[in-house]
Design brief:
The protein has 544 residues and is mainly α. The protein folds into three domains: 135 residues, no CATH class; 180 residues, no CATH class; 141 residues, no CATH class. It has 25 helices and five strands. The protein has a three-stranded antiparallel beta sheet with strand order 1-3-2, with no helix packed on it. It has a two-stranded antiparallel ribbon with strand order 4-5. Helix 10 packs across helix 11.
Length: 544
């Protein structure tokens, strides 16, 4: 059986064989602002019209990453071990740590392709769609003072997103569904997106950032000071949303329980002029042409056609850059939603190639995730090796260390400790403030700022104290059965480590825990102490 380092070597050799004779050459760095008038702003390394499988694309990723590290003489960290990979990919694809029995099965497997099989298994799980839905609802349904009455409708959007991701619906169709949403907001669907972004300007800002990777908000009142975006361009884009809204007073309707229906009225004036800088202009695609709009015709479907086209210079690049950032800790361009020619693009050719292949796949999100997760680049250890500790993260020579998000923390705690784990989320009557569930209360309490660096620890002392002083740590249901199991101290220690950290303990750790149990008693309370220590460790709090 090959060890991880040997496996990395042979995959690299396979890469050379696969791409030999493909006519690929190194691309010189250049401007990275998409130009709608050109087919491609950056020449990629893949021949035009090529269409790779996810496995082939994984090898291509490694080739271009290694090409840059070789040129800059940056050492690459070796592949991470199976336990660390299992935990990493489980958190990234399902949003929580793997169950202990799954960890045992994976760690004990002798199959040479077990990592690829695990990736496929996780992508096929219901937890995958739920996790992606959780990520995207937080990006799309921003929490602000002016929309807090609508939090009760957000779960409908999240459920719809989960269904779309799990069904393998392509990204262009998901985005089309969001951008053109209509109907009652209390039904399963994305209509509540228009309550979360209640004015044409907030809608424009969110659509541009999330789906096009462009920050336009500075162009509301004046020409953008750092990019070429003009104020007229902003309001021409915003015009696509000015006639979308809900009849009556949505806030009063939400309070009274009356129906709220989102619709687009081509004849009407639509949303009120919430921004004093608003200009009334004909709709025009961002950086593109002005479409022909027929009288009484809804304009959002026209915008969706342009946005989700494979020829759109922003759409595929924005999703690729954001997805890469979510998995690797930073995008090729940072921030991931501010992609313009003034920003550094660490790997122009790779970003162009990944965007091209994502579009060629029919905007298949699972294809993109499968390709990245199967790459050596994703599977590298987070530990510095050679001289790569002296270089920045933009080389991707080692995996970035990412703190667990609040949602990942909550779901992992619930998985480890069972139904009794979730805390009640504050005093009676406070639940609705957070959306009505203990999970919402936890995520809000541990919440991180929109656009925050995923590698920075955002929690502070209150959050740490909440975890350390939680009574739930010694009330996990499995502790009682563990105390009655008659297992040896070594077996109990292994069970706790597999449950919490998805790995087996070292010999030293086994001895240390055994000494603790001997001193404090081989019972539920003593096991709870070990569990408390593991759950409050940096190893649990970090995705490495």
């Amino acid at each position: 059986m090959l060890n991880p380092t040997q496996a990395c070597f042979f995959r690299g050799m396979a890469l050379l064989t696969l791409l030999a004779g493909a006519g690929v050459v190194a691309a010189a760095p250049g401007a990275n602002k998409p130009d709608p008038t050109k087919k491609s702003a950056v020449a990629g390394q893949l021949p035009e019209g090529s269409k790779l499988t996810a496995e082939q694309l994984a090898l291509h990723i490694d080739r271009l990453i290694e090409q840059k590290t070789t040129a800059e003489k940056v050492a690459l960290s070796p592949c991470t071990d199976d336990a660390e990979f299992l935990r990493r990919v489980s958190l990234d694809l399902t949003g929580k740590v793997p169950p202990a029995d799954k960890a045992v099965a994976f760690l004990d497997s002798k199959e040479s392709n077990k990592r690829a099989k695990l990736i496929d298994e996780l992508l096929a799980s219901k937890d995958h769609g739920r996790h992606l839905a959780n990520v995207w609802q937080a990006l799309l349904l921003t929490r602000r003072v002016d929309n807090r009455r609508f939090l009760q409708y957000y779960p409908h959007v999240e459920k719809w997103l989960a269904e779309q991701f799990n069904a393998g619906v392509s990204w262009d169709k998901i985005v089309r569904g969001v951008v053109t949403a209509t109907g009652p907001v209390d039904k399963d669907g994305p209509a509540a997106y228009y309550l979360a972004n209640a004015t044409a300007d907030t809608m424009t800002d969110n659509v541009a950032r999330m789906f096009l990777g462009v920050q336009l908000q500075c162009a509301q009142c004046h020409n953008h000071p750092f990019t070429d975006w003009k104020q007229n361009e902003y309001w021409q884009m915003a015009t696509f949303f000015t006639k979308v809204g809900a009849a009556g007073n949505p806030k009063k309707a939400a309070k009274s329980g009356d129906a709220i229906v989102i619709s687009e009225n081509p004849k009407g004036r639509g949303r009120k002029k919430a921004n004093p800088s608003m200009k009334v202009l004909p709709p025009k695609f961002l950086g593109g042409e002005q479409p022909t709009v027929k009288a009484n015709e809804p304009v959002r479907p026209i915008l969706a056609d342009w946005m989700t086209s494979p020829k759109n210079p922003y759409f595929a690049r924005a999703m690729v850059n954001r997805t890469w950032g979510q998995l690797l800790g930073r995008g090729f361009i940072n921030p991931v939603d501010d992609m313009h020619d003034g920003q550094v693009n660490s790997h122009p050719a790779l970003l162009a190639d990944l965007a091209g292949q994502f579009a060629a796949s029919g905007f298949d999100v699972k294809y993109l995730l499968r390709a990245i997760c199967n790459s050596q680049t994703y599977q590298r250890s987070s530990k510095p090796s050679g001289n790569n500790g002296d270089f920045g993260p933009e080389f991707f020579a080692r995996m970035a260390i990412k703190p667990l998000t609040p949602a990942q923390m909550f779901d992992s705690l619930a998985l480890v400790m069972g139904p009794s784990a979730p805390e009640k989320g504050g005093k009676k009557g406070k639940g609705k403030k957070y959306g009505g569930s203990p999970r919402e209360a936890f995520v809000t309490f541990f919440g991180i700022e929109d656009g925050a660096d995923p590698t920075e620890y955002q929690a502070g002392i209150p959050q740490v104290l909440r975890l350390m002083n939680s009574a739930q740590f010694n009330k996990a249901p499995f502790l009682a059965s563990l105390a009655r199991s008659g297992k040896s101290k070594a077996e109990i220690t292994e069970k706790l480590y597999l449950t919490v950290l998805a790995r087996r303990p070292s010999g030293e750790e086994t001895e240390r825990v055994a000494a603790y149990l001997t001193k404090n008693g081989n019972d539920r309370d003593a096991y709870g102490g070990v569990l408390w220590a593991l759950m409050n460790s940096s190893e649990f709090a970090l995705n490495r």
